[in-house]
Amino acid sequence: MDLASDISALVKKIEARDGSAISESFRTGLTAVLQELVDGSEDLTGALLNSADGHAWAEVLPSGFDKRRFAAMSSALLALSDTTVREARKGQTTNVILEGSEGNIYLMHAGSNMSLTVFTGVKPNLGMTLAQTRRAAERVSSLAREMAAQLAG
């Protein structure tokens, strides 16, 4: 089992080893990545990190956002996009872009078992926002690998 790709199992394993501090440290690290992402972009209004099974792991969201609903919707949208891209023989999903009249939502994988959803204002700089979001997704994946290495060691 690749613990970095199964965050739910990873956190359960940490907590079973009386590692609530490690678990909290992991969540704090994830939240810090999201906070830095949102603070570092004029275009981003929020960010959410969730597992593939739709559970929210970390978030930096404006008030009024239901993290549980958005986590479930984000994982469903990304899973549907993965299936659509695969069935169309177009490789792997890079990201999903939803454009709304009052802002956009971008979704992308953050490792193999998590997704990162970001919310923007109207008319964001698409290239810059996606680049910043990809870097944050890579950092999340790196944190998961570090946590897995701590558990293995």
Compact description:
The protein is of the alpha+beta class and 153 residues long. The protein is built from 4 helices and 5 strands; from the N terminus they run ααββαβββα. It has helices at residues 7-16, 20-39, 67-87, 126-152; strands at 44-51, 56-60, 96-100, 103-109, 114-120.
Helix-residue proportion: 40-55%
Largest sheet: 5 strands, antiparallel
N to C succession of SSEs = HHEEHEEEH
Query: Looking at the structure, what is the overall shape?
Result: globular
Rg to the nearest angstrom?
Answer: 15 Å
Corresponding CATH architecture: 2-Layer Sandwich
Distance between the first and last residues' Cα: 15 Å
Strand element count? 5
Number of individual domains? 1
The number of helical segments is 4
CATH superfamily heading: Dynein light chain 2a, cytoplasmic
- Strand proportion: 15-25%
- Given helix and strand content, the structural type is alpha+beta
CATH T-level topology: Beta-Lactamase
CATH domain class name: Alpha Beta
Question: Strand arrangement, largest sheet?
Answer: 2-1-5-4-3
What does this structure look like?
With 153 residues, this protein is α+β, with helices and mostly antiparallel strands. It has one domain (3-152): 2-Layer Sandwich (Beta-Lactamase). The protein contains 4 helices and 5 strands. A 5-stranded antiparallel β-sheet has the order 2-1-5-4-3, with helices on both faces. A hairpin with a 4-residue loop joins strand 1 and strand 2. Helix 1 packs parallel to helix 4 and helix 2 packs antiparallel against helix 4. The longest helix is centred in the C-terminal third of the chain and has 27 residues, at 126-152. The radius of gyration is 15 Å and the shape is globular. Mean pLDDT is 86; it is low at 1-6 and 14-21.
